[in-house]
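User: quick one, fold this
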Amino acid sequence: MAFFMLLCCRAWADEGSAWVERYTQAMNAQDSAALAELIADQATVVVTLTLGPQEAPMVVTLTRAEYLQQQKALWRFAAGQTIAISDVRQTVSDEGLRVSLHQRETYQLFQQAFHQESDIVLTLQRFQGRYQVAHIRTRSRQW
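Assistant:
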């Protein structure tokens, strides 16, 4: 039984690493079709955004379609976008594989520079034979 658990955990870890690599490539290439492939149709996205030290965080829940539309709009109108991903961690839970990561972005939008740091937790589950994101939870700070 311990050997079986070790194999399952290793398979999950490989899948999580592959997912993060595909995500990074899709974001850097600004490839909305590739990003859409990584996210399940029924996925939920919960974003907690802090814009300044004096403002209360804003919490927004998005559907997959809304999340993808927001990303497409950013790619269309922003310039000079850079993304760096670090601190990738994986844990197996009852829900599936949880992948957490830190994402740092910079871009210009309407001649204004933006910086954003996000701590993102993704829950991967198997849908129709492939692993996709079922839930995204992100805490972002923008300045």
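User: anything notable?
Assistant: The longest helix spans residues 2-29.
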